[in-house]
Amino acid sequence: MEWTVFFMRISDVMSKTVVSITPEESAALAARLLTRHGLGILPVCAQDGRLMGVVTDRDIVTRCLAAGADPSRVPVQDIMSPSPETLAPEDKAEDALGQMARHQIRRMPVVREGQVVGMVSLGDLARCRRYEAETAKALSEISSNISRRRKK
Q1: Are 76 and 46 in contact (CB under 8 A)?
Q2: How many Cα atoms within 13 Å fall on the side-chain side of residue 77?
Q3: Strand order across the 51-56 sheet
Q4: Most buried residue among 17, 52, 57, 64 by CB atoms closer than 10 A?
Q5: Are residues 100 and 106 in contact, defined by beta-carbon separation less than 8 angstroms?
Q6: Where are the domains of the chain?
């Protein structure tokens, strides 16, 4: 008997609707986009759509507001995380979980030839019954490291 192993790909679970921002736009606009669309992360893309970085709600708080800067005057490029971890649409979902746990991140851009084609989150992976245990483990690892960093 021949066994066929099915691996779920990132393209099967990713969100294909992507809200992004350019590096020149303000942190205030990034905050409005995050709030309006119920997101925690925005890919930062050049005019040609090439991924340059990501900006999160936490980046806005820690790198802009906590520093006493005016978010309407701070460009996203000054507070973004450059060269983010990414996934490819053909990557295996279970490999993504390991990568997310290793790098302590909950959301990742999905990139093909430098262009953002989607976003994937632990929540997207958790919705796949096949990965419930792995998702819980990844989230636990991320959360435990966050707790350890706060205690230092």
Answers
A1: no
A2: 8
A3: 41-45, 51-56, 81-82
A4: 64
A5: yes
A6: 10-151
Superfamily of domain 10-151: CBS-domain (3.10.580.10)
Q: What pTM was estimated for this model as a whole?
A: 0.79
Q: What is the pLDDT of residues 25-70, one digit of tens each?
A: 999 999 999 999 999 999 999 999 899 999 999 999 999 999 999 9
Report CA-CA distances (Å) from 102 to 25, 82, 116, 131, 143. Answer: 31, 18, 22, 17, 12
Q: What is the pLDDT of residues 128-148, one digit of tens each?
A: 655 455 555 555 565 565 545
**What confidence category does residue 4 fall into, taking pLDDT thresholds of 50, 70 and 90?**
very low
How much is the pLDDT for 122? 87
β-strand partners of 101: none
